[in-house]
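retry 2 of 3: previous attempt timed out while embedding magnesium ion. Reduced batch size to 1 and resubmitted. Inputs unchanged:
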Amino acid sequence: MITLALSKGRIFEETLPLLKAAGIEVLEDPETSRKLILPTNQPGVRVVLVRATDVPTYVEYGGADLGVTGKDTLLEHGGQGLYQPLDLRIAKCRMSVAVRADFDYASAVRQGSRLAVATKYTTIAREFFATKGVHVDLIKLYGSMELAPLTGLADAIVDLVSTGNTLKANQLVEVERIMDISSRLVVNQASLKLKQAPIRAIIDAFAGALSES
Ligand code: PRT
Ligand code: MG
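retry 2 succeeded.
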């Protein structure tokens, strides 16, 4: 049995066409089904639904053989024990720094003063500001980062931006782009050895579909 870990929402939706190219069709819709293990048209392949941030953990410990996860999530996890054969170029967005429109970010950064930064992505944020030589006090949050500068909890946030509509709706401005983000295929290293043929077939089909797009 091959087990593929996906998260509900954009990653599930955007992985479907790649699965189709590998001849795999998921037989239930996660938006209406309450099941966490979804069968596919291939008796030897199943999909497990986990939280986006849990995908690397499932694959690392062999709860799933493969998974699809954002580069953001992978960098925060560390990627240990994971083979990362493909950038799937799906669920694209960027990791950015945003502040209140009335906050003078350029001066704050230039003067070497301490910056209070709220984020779910503490590893990425710590590394980014360290490279710039900016002292930061990191405040770990699990969601609704946009609220932090508005309430005085932080000067800045580090968060994912796609259309920019969420920032705009909360009167925040993007002041720096840290990196482009897309989702990766990750594979358990023991599975890759023990179930080489079926896993290689999936990787090759995904790669083929990507080269056509
Ligand atoms: O939502 P939940 O708490 O269950 O988990 P999650 O947020 O980890 O999962 P999900 O499905 O929302 O995101 C999974 C992956 O999709 C992320 O790890 C990213 O790699 C990728 N992705 C692509 C995004 C976005 N685009 C995105 N826009 N993830 C989150 N967002 C959020 C962003 O955090 C912000 O709140 O959307 C908002 C900004 O969107 P715009 O369009 O208003 O700029
Ligand atoms: Mg989300």
